[in-house]
Amino acid sequence: MPRHIPSLDGLRAIAVMLVLWCHVPLTLEGYPLWLAEARWWINPGDFGVELFFALSGFLITRILLAEREAGQQVRWFLLRRLLRIFPIYYLLLLIMASWRPGREIAWNALYLSNFTDVFAPTPGLKPLGHTWSLCVEEHFYLIWPLIVGCCAPKIALRILKWLIIPVAIAVAFLVCAYVEKHAAEWAVQRLSPIRFLTLACGALIAYGETRLNASPKRLLVMGIALTTVGLLLHPNIWFVYVPFGWLQASWWPLDMAPAFIRVQSAILCTGILMCCLVAPRRFGLVNGILSAAPLRAIGRISYGLYLYHLPIFQILIHTDQRPSRVLLAVGLTFAAATTSYWLIERPILKYASRFRNRGRS
């Protein structure tokens, strides 16, 4: 199997740009009506994060499986991940603590901000409000690498299929059934055990990658089928339009909608990921777009873009909502992420690569 899949860099770039789009306020001067309607349909923030989860689950799991097969200990993976994620994350927290100290800094430092957002939600946009998704990923990677490293592949796969995924779905529906509506919406959006769903779906594809690559037609059919189902189940179709309006009052209780949306979103993004995996052999145009140098460049700095964009947007856009401020905020976000990548992240990644080929010891 190929060590690197260029088209996935492009998919990562699309995911981060969707998140950036989500955080441009609709009250911006001259915001086009058609773009506002498109944003309502796409829900770019949630869609972008879900794509990140599917990608992360797939890429991390294929690395873990390859390293297990090569006899490498999981501790080296965990060390490399620490070196990849922590430096600029805690650098940002240090900057934020000096600019705007508060309790949220401590919760972010402990990677628990997604839980505080659920149990003590505060109104308005917070400059570190987007870090909840990083907390979800970190919680997953405290558990999943140990399962892959310590359990036989068949056992780990069973845990994935019969424990992590069913528990994520069940907890989402139980929360909707027994928790007050507003709190349930926050919990289903932010709680780690529920959001493990799409990460686990991406991991599941990694386990089947060799078999699916041997039958690209099967991979294509499954990807298109899942993408189609995910689109047909999109809430803005069956919640809004008259031909499907009967669903609201008949077999599907509205209180279950947040859980249903989590399942729909996981199905959609899993299908998109599978289509992108088959793109190099079946979709030349799609593969060409996703593998284009500009998108791949954005994909490489996507972590910095995601991490830095909201504090910059908070400072520049939400106090002065002119289009020129949006351009300035986006430009500064790209400049910060690019500088961070070349001066901080890349040297650390180069150092971390020393721990990639460690065998059993």
Overview of this structure, please?
The structure is a single chain. This protein is an all-alpha fold and 361 residues long. The protein is globular and about 55 Å long. It has one domain (6-355). The protein has 19 helices and no strands. Helix 3 (44-69) crosses helix 10 (192-207) and helix 6 (113-119) packs antiparallel against helix 9.
Could you outline the blueprint of secondary structure elements for this entry?
Layout: H1 6-22, H2 33-42, H3 44-69, H4 74-99, H5 103-109, H6 113-119, H7 132-150, H8 153-178, H9 181-190, H10 192-207, H11 209-214, H12 216-232, H13 235-238, H14 246-249, H15 257-282, H16 284-290, H17 293-300, H18 302-316, H19 323-352
Helix pairs in contact: 1-3, 1-16, 1-17, 1-18, 3-7, 3-10, 3-15, 4-18, 4-19, 6-7, 6-9, 7-10, 8-9, 8-10, 8-15, 10-15, 12-15, 15-16, 18-19
